[in-house]
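The pair is quoted verbatim underneath.

:::
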Amino acid sequence: MNDLITIKDLVGIKSFCEEENREIVEYLISKFEKSCKQIIKIKAPITEKNNLIIGVNTLLKNLDNAIILNGHMDTVVANEEEYLTSPYEARIEGGKVYGLGIIDMKCFFASIIDNLDSLAKIKSPLVVCITCDEETCFRGVNEICNELRKRNITPRYTIVGEPTIFKICTCSKGDDEFVVEILGKGCHSSCPGNGINANYIAAKLISYIEKLNKKIDGTTLSCGIMNGGNKGNIVPDQASVTFDVRSNSHKNLNKVKRLINQKLQSLENEYEGSKISIRENFTLTPLEDIEDVGLDRIIKKYNLEKGEFIGGCEAGYFQGLGGKAFLFGNGDLALAHKPNEYMIVEDYFKYNELLLEIITELDKLILGGNYGI
């Protein structure tokens, strides 16, 4: 498809975060329904948006050792004033195609669609999962994973098509955001000993978060928001601290949670009469690096680089269903979410061929029982 019709069409559809995503859902269905066995829509809660689960060569029920291809259909919102031309019109110039979401990640769906005839010949169950709301709250992937469990669909391998510059990324950090609420005791600032300064407690917590940052392998902490007090002459009776933890393993995340809770208990004891509570505001599941002999052989065969994905992604959710998940995509993540995002045309066709070859190799591994964790 040297005219790049599919990618042009996809860029032309506005799919940033609104209350519904009917246009891009209907377009994708129109492309997949011609040669796929089954397509189901999964509604996201609260909104009128839908996700898609597509059985390329299979009906969507009771599947073991499936190959899943995952990506999100939504984009960030474009500030059109920063673009040289419309972000919703694919512009080809100098061997590149420009457009909003072209690498993050509409070119992945174009690659799948352009490979459909060949993918339909894969022997292992092949399922495409297309989500909404990845750029905001990851609502879509939770609904899709719940549906896959209900239908007893278990992946052996999941490929997430985020932009990785042709690297095979076998791990990525999750993101857990926490809010700590601190209740002290207010009083006039001329007699601070009569009160409990909630800001002092918050400051000690923030200092501890800074010290804990990077003390645990593959884990970082960052304090993003601190609020406390109303007037300069009143000892503040309340404060709040919002911080996030990004870790590449559940074990390390749980260790951080334990240490933070111990610190909060210590601060409550130090500031007798204070009340400190913590809640989890947001969670993004990490992709943990699990050894897989079969995937390592593929990396070696195609002379690919193995790495870590630095952004947030949906891969960890699919790994939670079973098997090995990894990221493999076209384009550079550094270009995503920025004006004049582009895809290199030559890389697009190279990726199409390589994606098909990797899926074919995974199929052989599954059928031969030669994969292994």
